[in-house]
Write a structure and sequence with these properties.
about 650 residues, alpha+beta, Beta-Lactamase, 11 helices, about 75% helix, flat, transmembrane helix, MCPsignal_dom
Length: about 650
């Protein structure tokens, strides 16, 4: 049998082999990546170095151009067209740069406001050509009146050109151009053991005849042979420039070269910046990176081995050893010694396992002890069963006699119940007839109640109509009072009219007659109104009496309605009770029938009991024999349990 230790050691050995294989694979894979990463790092460093030099050139160019544009002599020369003054001023500036800076190849070109060449500091005899046809930067400055800079081709070749507008008192006088080469960049880099050269593509070199006079390298021309030392030219001549530009990178025996596209101000690629550094710089970085990678692999390997050793130690002392202890105790317990306990203790799964084994041993010991105790009790119970069986045998004989008497009594009960069922059936028929009568009376009471309710509602409506009539009569009396007031006023007006007619004499006679007629009419109106008012008061009194009588009638009708309602409810209650009694009688009839059937079943069951009693008596005899066998088995079980060594409970 293979032990757990051997299996674990074998697994860890396989894991070590896999780790070693992965380490070897990673080493080979990382080596190429380290080399490529170092090449990329050096490339980025060289690109950054060139970018710093070019940015410095651009900043100097634009700063100087703007500064020169503020020169009063140059402003006056452009304003007056005085070339001699401009030549003198430019010569002074050029001499100052040559003597105080590393910029040996700077050129300054002055243009008038129409974009025509005014003065060149490197060729003072050449001027007057129109620049806007070939020089987009000049055109841009004239259009925008702002300073610009960048690489641009011209008659002198590819230069870093910074052009600033010359403005005085708001008037655009022209522009000044500060031209720089890249020779100073090459010289500065060469001091740091770095090679630099700017090459221009053959297609663009043909646009500047002066560039075609320079040295050619695999279809590319040096932008200016005077800017680069012989050592730089020789190093570039020894490499395949086309291959370098195609791959952006080239490694020789001594140098590491990169190629960076050279663009005009508008982004057009016209050539390439070639930068070379000693190969030892790259190889030193690669060697350092490899050493770091190797060190990391060694550290990881050591950490892995230490981890494996720790795991083996942990497994041996914390898992395997406790398992052996538990296994030995389980073997002792399996041999029948339940008093043995596992002495190992720990607050983990193994500790729980040891405790479970101890609990199992304890439970088994208790179970066997219970079996032993129950075996003794079983022997005692067997003796008692023997005695009880004899009693049962005697009781079975007595039970047979009692069963015969019970059969006779049940037959008499069956006859009595049959008579009860017949009497209940007669009562049930009478109850159903009573239910129908009460139901009919209840329906008639409901009809009376509904009719009385309708009469009450009708009388109540009539009372309301008469009350409305009384209210209308009162309103008529009010109107008659108004008419009487109007008649009194008319009589007074007629009297006044008669007085006025009398004053008028002969002319007022006709008016006097009319006034008398009006007064007579008013008096008749008053008399008629008073009669009508008396009649209305009498009508209102009669209406009041009628309303009172109608209200009394309504109250009496409502009393009749309440009485009808109570009668209907009482009949409904009687009907409910009658129906309940009828239902109970029906249930009694059914129960009597069921009892009759049940007694028949009882008679059959008692007969069966008689048969069972006889069988019980025979079974009791057989039980006595089986109890004797049970005593023998109990003795054998006690002997088997006594073979185990039990713990004290």
């Amino acid at each position: 049998m293979n032990s757990i230790t051997k299996k674990i050691v074998l697994s860890i050995s396989c894991l070590c082999l896999v780790f070693l294989g992965l380490t070897a694979f990673v080493s080979f894979s990382v080596e190429d990546k380290i080399t490529e990463s170092e090449y990329l790092t050096v490339t980025n460093r060289m690109e950054g170095l060139l970018s710093q030099h070019l940015d410095k050139k651009f900043d100097i160019g634009i700063t100087n151009a703007v500064g020169f544009a503020a020169n009063e002599n140059l402003q006056q020369a452009l304003a007056t067209g005085n070339r001699a003054l401009a030549v003198t001023a430019l010569s002074t500036i050029s001499d100052m740069y040559k003597s105080n800076t590393n910029f040996k190849g700077i050129k300054i070109h002055l243009h008038d406001k129409n974009g025509i060449s005014f003065v060149r500091n490197w060729d003072k005899t050449k001027f007057g050509e129109k620049l806007t046809d070939l020089r987009p930067l000049v055109t841009k400055v004239i259009r925008e009146k702002k300073a610009v800079n960048g690489f641009e081709l011209g008659n002198v070749g590819l230069m870093i050109r910074a052009i600033a507008p010359v403005i005085k008192d708001g008037d655009y006088l022209g522009s000044i151009e500060f031209l720089q080469g890249v020779g100073s960049i090459s010289r500065d880099m060469e001091k740091n053991d770095t090679t630099y050269m700017l090459l221009i593509d053959d297609k663009y070199a043909k646009k500047s005849p002066k560039i075609l006079k320079n040295r050619q390298f695999n279809g590319y021309y040096s932008v200016n042979d005077n800017w680069f030392s012989n050592d730089v030219v020789q190093k570039i001549a020894q490499i395949d420039v086309s291959k370098l530009i195609a791959n952006n990178r080239l490694i020789t025996d001594n140098c590491f070269f990169i190629s960076i596209p050279a663009t005009l101000y508008d982004g057009t690629v016209i050539g390439h910046h070639i930068i070379g550094a000693p190969r030892s710089i790259v190889e030193t970085g690669i060697a350092q990176s490899r050493q770091m990678a190797t060190l990391l692999i060694v550290i990881f390997g050591a950490a892995f081995i230490i981890t494996i050793v720790f795991i083996l130690y942990f497994l041996r002392n914390m898992i395997i050893k406790p398992i052996k202890i538990i296994g030995e105790n389980i073997s002792i317990i399996s041999a029948g010694d339940f008093s043995q306990k596992v002495t190992f203790s720990s607050n983990d799964e193994l500790g729980e396992l040891a405790q479970s084994v101890n609990n199992m041993s304890q439970h088994l010991s208790e179970s066997f002890q219970n079996v032993l105790n129950n075996s003794s009790r079983l022997s005692q119970l067997a003796s008692q069963l023997n005695t009880d069986s004899e009693v049962i045998q005697s009781g079975s004989k007595e039970q047979c006699s009692a069963v015969a008497s019970t059969i006779t009594a049940s037959q008499q009960s069956s006859i009595t119940i049959t008579e009860v069922a017949q009497n209940v059936s007669s009562v049930s028929s009478a109850s159903e007839n009573a239910t129908e009568s009460v139901s009919a009376g209840s329906e008639m009471t409901k009809a009376t109640y509904e009719l009385m309710s309708q009469v009450g509602e009708t009388m109540e409506d009539s009372s309301k109509v008469i009350q409305n009539l009384g209210n209308s009569s009162q309103k008529i009396g009010t109107i008659l009072q108004v008419i009487e007031d109007i008649a009194d006023q008319t009589n007074l007006l007629a009297l006044n009219a008669a007085i006025e007619a009398a004053r008028a004499g002969e002319h007022g006679r006709g008016f006097s007659v009319v006034a008398d007629e009006v007064r007579n009419l008013a008096e008749k109106t008053v008399t008629a109104t008073q009669e009508i008012s008396s009649m209305i008061e009498m009508i209102i009194g009669e209406i009041g009496n009628a309303v009172t009588k109608m209200e009394d009638g309504v109250k009496q009708v409502m009393v009749g309605v309440d009485t009808a309602q109570q009668s209907s409810e009482s009949l409904q209650g009687i009907l409910t009770n009658v129906r309940t009694v009828s239902a109970d009688i029906s249930q009694i009839a059914v129960a009597a029938t069921q009892q009759q059937s049940a007694i028949e079943v009882i008679e059959s069951n008692i007969s069966n009991i008689e048969e069972v009693s006889l069988k019980n008596m025979n079974t009791a005899n057989e039980t006595v024999q089986r109890i004797e066998i049970l005593n023998q088995v109990s003795d054998e079980l006690s002997a088997i349990v006594n073979q185990f060594k039990l713990s004290h409970i």
